[in-house]
């Protein structure tokens, strides 16, 4: 069985840090906490889990703080988490099995990162991250903000997942870091252009966001998953700016990088839906459902675009066309995915009333 060091950087995480450490404390052999300036009870809470608590002066650079934490590790492998991450019980078991059976020749293990969950606790939006790495390889974090761990060698995938369970965060922090770097005259890498555009979009600075997404895409050096995501986010920005033509162009632009993905099929479908062209909308929603979830993708996926959204929207489209049997069929398909969802339940009651009324009319006609 391999040994594992948990390495984390924290600041003012008293609301979540105990929950995080409780979920993993018995699965790791060492806990390394690097505090970047907490003024609350974070350190006191952490001290009940580990004595290996180190201070690091915050210099607006996440990679440097994470690399500092990695240097403090002493075990064979390093697991990293954020304070608002947890291992759910099923994933705790998977991590335990992974630790027990891991081949020491493995250099890195990727795990799912669940970002949002539906009302049944099923992951909706997720991606993969290199989560467990061999310490002796000396892998480094890169990037002051939206940092990434650069790994190589023998990499395997695991179906274990880390779940993001955020309560609150400093929503302006990353944007401030990027703006300060711009003021200092720093030339942004393609990755920085993309993530800076994301921050601008999240802060409703849509025109500036468009500018930086365009710079990112025109550079032609971005990771394909970021290129695809940028097309979708550009479409969102143009929608907010009431530019329908450029919104549709941004969706179609994604086809330049890869065959259509469910998200973009749903986006196209909705443009037709808004124009009440239900037959065209149906075509694109069916394409989204046929493609399904991309199991091999490392990029962020909103799985709802591959199953829930197509079926719930097909239900509405067929209802508008008066084909209630197909409407009911697709609503039940949606219900098999999210059986407690209010929209599914509303549609179910509505369609039951429609069929009851039809049966009553048929019965009345037969009597006449």
TrEMBL record:
The keyword Signal does not apply. This is Glycosyltransferase. Its EC number is 2.4.-.-. The keyword Signal does not apply. It comes from the Bacteria. Keywords: Glycosyltransferase, Transferase. Residues 5-126 form the Glycosyltransferase 2-like domain. One of its GO terms (molecular function) is glycosyltransferase activity. InterPro entries: Glyco_trans_2-like, Nucleotide-diphossugar_trans, TPR-like_helical_dom_sf. It is an enzyme of class 2 (transferase).
């Amino acid at each position: 069985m391999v040994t594992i060091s948990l390495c984390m950087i924290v600041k003012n995480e008293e609301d979540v840090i105990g929950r995080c450490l409780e979920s993993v404390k018995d699965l790791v052999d060492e806990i390394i906490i690097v505090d970047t300036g907490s003024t609350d009870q974070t350190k006191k809470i952490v001290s009940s889990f580990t004595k290996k608590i180190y201070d690091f002066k915050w210099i607006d650079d996440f990679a440097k703080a994470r690399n500092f934490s990695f240097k403090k590790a002493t075990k064979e492998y390093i697991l990293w988490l954020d304070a608002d991450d947890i291992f759910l019980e099923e994933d705790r078991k998977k991590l335990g099995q992974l630790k027990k059976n891991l081949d020491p020749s493995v250099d890195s293990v990727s795990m799912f990162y669940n970002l949002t969950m539906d009302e049944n606790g099923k992951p909706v939006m997720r991606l993969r991250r290199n989560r467990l790495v061999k310490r002796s390889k000396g892998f480094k974090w890169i990037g002051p903000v939206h940092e990434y761990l650069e790994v190589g060698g023998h990499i395997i995938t695991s179906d274990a997942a880390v779940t993001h369970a955020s309560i609150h965060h400093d929503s302006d922090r990353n944007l401030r870091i990027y703006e300060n770097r711009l003021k200092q005259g720093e030339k942004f890498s393609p990755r920085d252009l993309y993530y800076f555009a994301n921050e601008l979009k999240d802060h409703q600075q849509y025109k500036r966001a468009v500018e930086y997404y365009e710079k990112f895409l025109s550079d032609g050096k971005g990771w394909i998953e970021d290129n695809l995501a940028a097309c979708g986010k550009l479409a969102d920005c143009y929608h907010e700016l009431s530019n329908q033509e450029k919104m549709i162009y941004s969706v179609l632009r994604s086809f330049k990088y890869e065959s259509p993905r469910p998200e973009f099929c749903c986006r196209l479908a909705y443009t037709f839906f808004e124009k009440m062209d239900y037959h065209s909308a149906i075509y694109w929603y069916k394409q989204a459902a046929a493609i399904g979830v991309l199991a091999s993708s490392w990029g962020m996926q909103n799985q709802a675009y591959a199953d829930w959204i197509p079926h719930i929207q097909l239900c509405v489209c067929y209802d508008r066309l008066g084909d209630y049997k197909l409407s009911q069929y697709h609503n039940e398909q949606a219900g098999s995915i999210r059986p407690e969802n209010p929209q599914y339940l509303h549609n179910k009651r509505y369609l039951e009333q429609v069929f009851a009324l039809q049966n009553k009319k048929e019965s009345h006609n037969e009597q006449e």
